Q: What sequence folds into this?
């Protein structure tokens, strides 16, 4: 196993999350019993062993909090993949890609922030499946 990243920006996606618009490390648990009961009983919460980097248990959520109903993208390359992973929730890439009519590899590229010529077309199809529309917030003067 590789040495864990020292900065959240350098950590694999499974080890980091966004809070208040900044990347932070996910909380690390050594066993399922360390995860608070409230989180273990929440149907929208799941946990997984981080086999990429730190070897700890991380908690994931399939829902977004109230404060995230509207999200400003500061950095599209970082913020869009995070949003797509949260929207997909427990569904597999194959399931979402099938409904969207795109190849699973194209969805993987969007979620990992890779560039591809079909990216915007794929993004449009995937967002329709999630029933999400893109928008912009213009500054008022």
A:
């Amino acid at each position: 196993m590789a040495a864990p990243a020292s900065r959240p920006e350098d950590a694999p996606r499974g080890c980091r999350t966004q809070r208040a618009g900044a990347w932070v490390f996910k909380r690390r648990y050594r066993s399922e019993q360390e995860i608070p009961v409230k989180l273990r009983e929440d149907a929208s919460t799941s946990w997984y062993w981080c086999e990429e980097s730190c070897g700890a248990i991380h908690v994931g959520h399939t829902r977004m909090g109230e404060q995230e109903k509207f999200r400003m993208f500061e950095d599209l390359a970082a913020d869009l993949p995070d949003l797509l992973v949260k929207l997909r929730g427990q569904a597999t890439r194959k399931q979402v890609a099938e409904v969207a009519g795109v190849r699973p590899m194209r969805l993987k590229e969007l979620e990992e922030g890779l560039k591809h010529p079909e990216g915007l077309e794929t993004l449009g199809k995937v967002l329709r499946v999630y029933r999400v529309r893109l928008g912009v917030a213009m500054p008022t003067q």
